[in-house]
Amino acid sequence: xxxxxxxxxxxxxxxxxxxxxxxxxxxxxxxxxxxxxxxxxxxxxxxxxxxxxxxxxxxxxxxxxxxxxxxxxxxxxxxxxxxxxxxxxxxxxxxxxxxxxxxxxxxxxxxxxxxxxxxxxxxxxxxxxxxxxxxxxxxxxxxxxxxxxxxxxxxxxxxxxxxxxxxxxxxxxxxxxxxxxxxxxxxxxxxxxxxxxxxxxxxxxxxxxxxxxxxxxxxxxxxxxxxxxxxxxxxxxxxxxxxxxxxxxxxxxxxxxxxxxxxxxxxxxxxxxxxxxxxxxxx
Length: 283
Known about the structure:
Elements (H helix, E strand, L loop, with lengths): L3 E6 L6 H9 L4 E5 L8 H8 L8 E6 L3 H13 L8 E4 L4 H15 L6 E5 L4 H12 L3 E6 L2 H15 L3 E5 L3 H7 L5 E4 L10 H4 L7 E4 L16 E5 L2 E4 L1 H19 L6 E2 L1 H11 L1
Parallel strand pairs: 1-2, 1-3, 3-4, 4-12, 5-6, 5-8, 6-7, 8-9, 9-11
Antiparallel strand pairs: 10-11
């Protein structure tokens, strides 16, 4: 029986990137739908769960550039499942779950995160929020930063409520506030917009407590000055550094692996927690 993946995207056009990775992950056919919402997804889900007898050969992948829209769609889809009428489902809007999982799994593989102080610069986006959750569950003390404190507070409250963790907000808008945020920190992640430098080399090069840095930005200038996009655990100034392309190889492998696992059973749900668990086995 063919493995069918129904790709439900909250953006007007389904992502080509996600379609390619889905095929590489083992789906025989990928059927993409754009502009999917909690309101119009009902017939799409019904068509998926009410047809085949062996439902493990059908699965749903939710994506799109807006994580909040993806979360709402994800929940709406799950509410339509009942009894044996369900298929496996995965959420990875904007690649946030797989990217965050790859970043944190690499660091956790290199050194224990429990008891460490971690700072996520520009952390109110979906990657930063999810990475913060994953580090907190590893036992790290996590600070999420934003240029505006109220945005950091909203993001932390949302993650704390959704995942039962305790992330702390902080406003960071210049070099002085960045230096204050990094005081006593052991880990720092950059999860801001592409092409925006968040941390000059002078602030981390001789930092007395920093141990590891991981950057999600592959577009010059990188989030961290003084590292390379291909860095994958290189030692720079006594710190282990991971660039976006060094993270990206694991992210892509993880994405493909999760797609493949969707077809192993019909009752699986892959969100941040489940995706991170798989990432840890691959790092």
